[in-house]
Amino acid sequence: MIANFDETILNIFDRHASKMRDASRARRDAVQMRASVEDKQNTNVVDIRDTLGVRQPTDKYDGCKNLRTLRTLLSMVDDRGFERSAHQMQFHSSFERCVARVVYKRDWATSRPAIMRLNEWDRCASEVLISTPRRFGKTFS
Which of 17, 27, 33, 79 is most exposed by smallest CB count within 10 Å? Predict the structure, then answer.
């Protein structure tokens, strides 16, 4: 049966079959499931400290940058072993809401309801009395 085909046609077929096999292997490798921990290709290492104080595409208002930076710094304190108690976290949350008009200074007057919805805040008092007894964690606050 091979004698019936011209040598040129067989070479063209072999080249085509080889290209198809290579394309199939490349596609299989591209879509193969891998553990993201082991995947070292095309990874950009981003240090979270490089985003502090820098506006990100996800920031809707200028104050979002400031609040994200504040929250990131607090989480860095937590990551270093100084875990905040429930009272300290409540204190910091209350403090965020209290200073929101300063954090979002340019947008606060015109976009206060939208900012509160964005941060899932029910209310933001502009004047707050803060009393921090020893058990409330003022050592780190």
Answer: 33
With 0.85 as the threshold, say if the pTM is over it.
no
Are residue 126 and residue 77 in the same domain, yes or no? yes
CB count within 10 Å of CB 124 equals 19
Tokens of 19: 């290209």
Contacts of 106 (CB under 8 A, 6+ apart): 61, 62, 63
Residue type at position 31? V
Domain hosting residue 121, numbered range: 49-136
How many CB atoms within 10 Å of residue 63?
22
Contact predicate 61/107, CB 8 Å: yes
Asked if 65 and 56 touch (Cβ cutoff 8 Å), the reply is: yes
Distant-in-sequence, close-in-space partners of 115: CB < 8 Å, separation ≥ 6: 61, 63, 100, 104, 107, 108
Tens of pLDDT, residues 11-34: 999 999 999 999 888 888 877 766
Whether the CB-CB separation of 88 and 36 falls below 8 Å is answered with no
User: Which residue in 102, 24, 36, 98 sits closest to 63, CA to CA?
Assistant: 102
